[in-house]
Amino acid sequence: MTAQIEIGTDSAGQGICVDIEELLATRLLVQGNSGSGKSHLLRRLLEQTAGLVQQVVIDPEGDFTSLADEFDHIVIDGAAHSVREIEALAGRVRQHRVSVVLALDELEVEQQIRCAALFLGALFDAPREHWYPALVVVDEAQMFAPAAAGELAEETRRLTLSAMTNLMCRGRKRGLAGIVATQRLAKLAKNVAAEASNFLMGRTFLDIDMQRAADLLGMDRRQAERIRDLQRGHFLGLGPAISRRPVAVHIGEVRTGGKNAAEGLMPLPQAKGEELEALLHSELAEEAAEPVRPAPPPRPAPDLEQAITERAAAQAEREESGEPLGANEPSAGVNNSPGPQDGEAAITRIVAELAGEEGATFQSSAVLFRNFAQRCRQQGVPSAHVDMLEFRRLFAFASARLHELQSPMREAIEELAQGVPEDVLAPYLALAVAAAQGRPAPDEDELARVYGSSSPSRIRRLLEHLERQGLIVVREEFGGGRTIIVTGLEEAAAAES
After folding, report:
1. What is the CATH number of domain 405-497?
2. Cβ neighbourhood burial of 228 (10 Å; 0-12, 13-18, 19+)
3. What is the tens place of the pLDDT at every residue in 120-137?
4. In the chain, which residues have pLDDT < 50?
5. 4-259+300-308 in CATH: which number?
6. Angle at Cα 330 formed by Cα 328 and Cα 332, nearest 5°?
7. Which of 68, 178, 379, 462 could lock 73 by a disulfide, CB 3.0 to 4.6 Å apart?
């Protein structure tokens, strides 16, 4: 059985549904300019899934605290708790599977970011026995995963980027399904946005954001104009949990409302200019002369730990009485389905498949890395520990077919390659592999393919560079032939054996 909720309708009035179990496995990215209806979309999603799965909302504006009025959410005031209390509360949230809203509106921006990062980190670090499925909604995600440092302290930026990256890249195995909403894709860290497989794109005007959104939806430049023409509350959806092809969605109605200021026009005060001027200037000097009032003491924090415990006890009583449980409870097939393969062997295989494709070496590292991450997600292989630098090295190994060698010789070549610059690693490994297999050295065409170049002269300069570095020895024969010796290969192979 699949749990589906309706988030809205298409242009023909047909309902558009979201598969919650699929969403838990694939994550969601929401993007749209201010006023496009992102908060309304998130509220609709939260209301429809309130009885199905646990929810954790990171709310920098205090806009989602009204959920507690209609549903069983507990509001955690970030300003009323210490660092240790925030971490302890996050642990209890995972233990007792209670839906919460972390309200950060009473904190300054940097304090908001640190509080959210600590809370997310504690959710991520929960014990294995508490890895229950949960939706983690982060509004204004560009604050917590910025593409550039900006005015944040470096320590704060590292802390929040680590927390958000863990949520989006490694959270699935821990039951945490990230839903991030941002005003601008260009302001959101790419490694966070890249992990989402489902997209809901709202109205966007800037060309750079519109083009990125179109790329994620698989649209060409002409079709991308649809994103600019979207009305408020209308989104384009794509992803395994929504639709296999881009679909227009008009978000449905919600039961709760935000607590922010009302939008739209309001009648102005019906008073004359002299009366308004008097209101502004009356007793102004006396008020300015008053001493500065001290800041009010912090509001007493409610006993949230007790509330969470009581909520868990009530839930246990419902279980004993035989009342049906929602998807808030752990169910088969939602979170416990491991990927088909794990470990370094699976990563090596995926990189080898990628390197074996025609024209792969001529693609940019960014494109290759994105394809690698996508294939790992599709096959359930954890790859968060493989960064761009490590991927380039693995791709060079695969392009040179280093995996075809037996273990002692392969390890010897890897040891020799430790000091080889990254930009010439692949052709150097191709020469080393050929020498280890007793084959003639690759010709210029083969080296050009491995190097990702179509210029023979560039390959000749490459060989000269490797020889100047002492990595190889090139011997030209009178008959026009050429012998290439990899320096230190025989000695290293003998030492390994």
Report:
1. 1.10.10.10
2. middle
3. 999 999 999 999 999 999
4. 1, 261, 296, 325-341
5. 3.40.50.300
6. 130
7. 68
